Amino acid sequence: MQLDHATTEQLRQWEAELSSQYEAFRASGLTLDLTRGKPSAEQLDLSNALDGILGGDYAAGEVDTRNYGGLEGIAEARALFASVLDAQPEEVLAAGNSSLTLMHQTALLDLHFGAGSAAGDWPGWAAEARASGGRIKFLAPVPGYDRHFGICEHLGIELLPVPLTDQGPDMDAVEAAVQADPLIKGIWCVPRFSNPTGIVYSADTVARLARLARLAGDHFRVFYDNAYAVHAFSEDAPELASLLDCCRREDTLDSVYLFGSTSKITLAGAGVAFMAASPANLTRLRRHMGFAQIGPDKVNQLRHVRFLRDLDGIHAHMARHAELLRPRFELVLDKLRQNLAGLGEWTEPKGGYFVSFDTRPGLAATVVRMAAEAGVALTPAGATWPHGHDPEDRNIRIAPTVPTLAEIDQAMEVFVTCVKLASVRQALQG
Amino acid sequence: MQLDHATTEQLRQWEAELSSQYEAFRASGLTLDLTRGKPSAEQLDLSNALDGILGGDYAAGEVDTRNYGGLEGIAEARALFASVLDAQPEEVLAAGNSSLTLMHQTALLDLHFGAGSAAGDWPGWAAEARASGGRIKFLAPVPGYDRHFGICEHLGIELLPVPLTDQGPDMDAVEAAVQADPLIKGIWCVPRFSNPTGIVYSADTVARLARLARLAGDHFRVFYDNAYAVHAFSEDAPELASLLDCCRREDTLDSVYLFGSTSKITLAGAGVAFMAASPANLTRLRRHMGFAQIGPDKVNQLRHVRFLRDLDGIHAHMARHAELLRPRFELVLDKLRQNLAGLGEWTEPKGGYFVSFDTRPGLAATVVRMAAEAGVALTPAGATWPHGHDPEDRNIRIAPTVPTLAEIDQAMEVFVTCVKLASVRQALQG
């Protein structure tokens, strides 16, 4: 469909045909869902052996995992997850079931507590902001992950969008922003298989993120949510350069927090979250976290260690996920390629959980509404932007992991029909 | 030993004998520990069946516990833990492994977030304090639990000690305090088998706590940590009146937060924490918690539901704990009764995890130090008071759950010798 050179008559003919197709979908009573960035039941089944894997042996070395203590997690879990984040075990904190909780805690700590009373005199970002009469801000590469933005919205941190390119955040824009405003204290990053575009940060982007604190000041932090660190489903998926190695070279280890979890490795609700940070940051975090907890669920950590064993074990396990995910993503991309050339732009991810689709400007909300009326739920338009506001109204996040192939086939037929119809109607009005 | 009517000569003789005994202990190289309020390995063994209990069936009704979601916990866990807190299931939030985390989150929410932007206009305690130029304060019944005090210390909330009687907090003092100072916004309570004294709040105390908001204002909260709700080890242990029933009668449901966990029912590090609150408070809490997590570990909640089943199942399980705990507490109390009449005061708990011992004034730190030098670790003197400062230097918390009976026997021999010797030396100096 070559919209831009079509005659009005041709456009009207397409509109009629597509309307008819669309009405047929509406009449067929579909209930399909492409909203949820979560694993399917088949994926979860891959980890069913977790429960019961301990066989009554709850010992992690000398530690009885059943009892209290060990705020930083068991040594075996720290070592395992260090391998995922390309960190040293002593840089890693193994925690509860939610990396989002770790991110919220870390941001809250830096905002309201700073160094705390026991180390130095930094009172935290909020005090810096009060002293200068401004607001704390984070850079939000867009499109991005709504729950990252939600943490900032909850804590009263302003979000400044910066473009996400196919190499990662537009680092020229990032560097210019932090130099222009010292109250920019953080940036949200999903460096491998970015949510939602699926891109992988280039080595140059990673190196520039590691140098960013030089421009942004001592209390700037890169919130590096490596949620999909091992979540490739194509063999030619790009590797990610090691942020911590770059930071070691640049002497900027204090400027980065790395996060991850097994939510999309084992069980989405009952996995283990982890983070890596410099020794100074970890000491500070542990001290503060110690007021709010005695320790994480070490038994579940031990289950994960016994089940996944090591990085090779994780990769072998992820290959089984890939078998389930690859055909789903291929089907989505085939539908887009076959139907929507010229009517939108999309990414072709090699891993992760999403395909990001950009309609022609001004159509995303319309497409999502039309799809909903035809029984296909999509993530709300704008959700990938701070405060849910996509200024060009273009971005739609497609999450194909939960539905079956047959469901994806049907849902994508509806989706492409909605995009075509909305585009044709727009062209007729234009 | 009747110190107060003894001659100096008699005191000197006792001092010599006790010094000799004490030096013998010192020379014997003991390493015993009465510090830890945690279950023994034998107690933890009672719950070993938790891991593997699901047998591959992760479904809680229609909910796949393995996946994301369900911020308030699974319905089955909410119902089970409602029975522990004498609450309605819809008033209960089933959470992660730490009730301390729930308390910290709740206090932080009321301090810095208040009602949030979506409901009403209450900006939180901190804003109230700024407006009036004062500090937020909590009442701390003493002796009490150091981790409660730690939450306030972390959040910058001032702690005002009030006496803990054998009926609960001195409610005359509590009521007078909240009427005198509107910036008193909370009180810490461990209503059954109080940490460390083991007392159970009387029905009158519970009723007066339920009425307290009438005197203390709309934003006052009772932090009611019912950590030992079902932790009786004697059959004649007093029951606790229902705080929520009292609140329903008084229309003060919004003024109380109830907390509990299975840390000392199943596994100390891998249990399930829970809380009960009014619908209005739960809605507010859920909204805020939703920025920091997607949901708790529902798989572990389901394990607990399958393992404990219902309140009868919990009581039957706790009876097995009681078999292990009762002789330990009896041994401690026998040693105190046989040796320390007139040299201190102590409680005789019917449940919980501690015996609280008060030395003669000015001796607690000395006794703890002497015991440590003889190889018996005791909780630091003062730990049961805010900021670790016991103004009369009297209170020592004895935690006998972990050591074996033989170890308790030896440790208590050392303890009573230290108390006697310190008391005799004090009498000689007086």
- Find the CATH superfamily of the largest domain in chain A: Type I PLP-dependent aspartate aminotransferase-like (Major domain)
The CATH topology of the largest domain in chain A turns out to be: Aspartate Aminotransferase, domain 2
Portion of residues in beta strands of chain A equals 5-15%
Summarize the largest interface: chains and residue counts. A-B, 51 and 51 residues
| Sheet having the most strands of chain A | 8 strands, mixed
Question: What is the rounded distance between the termini of chain A?
Answer: 17 Å
Largest sheet strand order of chain A: 4-11-10-9-8-5-6-7
Q: What is the overall pLDDT average of chain A? A: 96
Oligomer: homodimer
How does this model look, in words?
The structure is a homodimer of 430-residue chains. With 430 residues, the first copy, chain A, is α/β, with parallel strands linked by helices. Chain A has two domains: 3-43 and 315-429, Aspartate Aminotransferase, domain 1 (Alpha-Beta Complex); 58-309, Type I PLP-dependent aspartate aminotransferase-like (Major domain) (Aspartate Aminotransferase, domain 2). Chain A has 14 helices and 15 strands. The first copy, chain A, has helices spanning 8-27, 41-45, 75-85, 99-113, 125-132, 146-155, 171-180, 203-216, 243-250, 279-289, 298-308, 311-339, 364-373, 405-429, and strands spanning 32-33, 59-60, 63-64, 92-94, 137-142, 158-165, 168-169, 184-189, 221-225, 256-261, 273-276, 344-346, 355-359, 376-377, 395-398. Chain A has an eight-stranded mixed β-sheet, with helices on both faces. In chain A, strand 2 and strand 3 (63-64) form a beta hairpin. In chain A, helix 4 (99-113) runs parallel beside helix 6 (146-155). The model of chain A has no long low-confidence stretch (mean pLDDT 96). At the A-B interface, helix 4, helix 6 and helix 11 of A face helix 4, helix 6 and helix 11 of B.
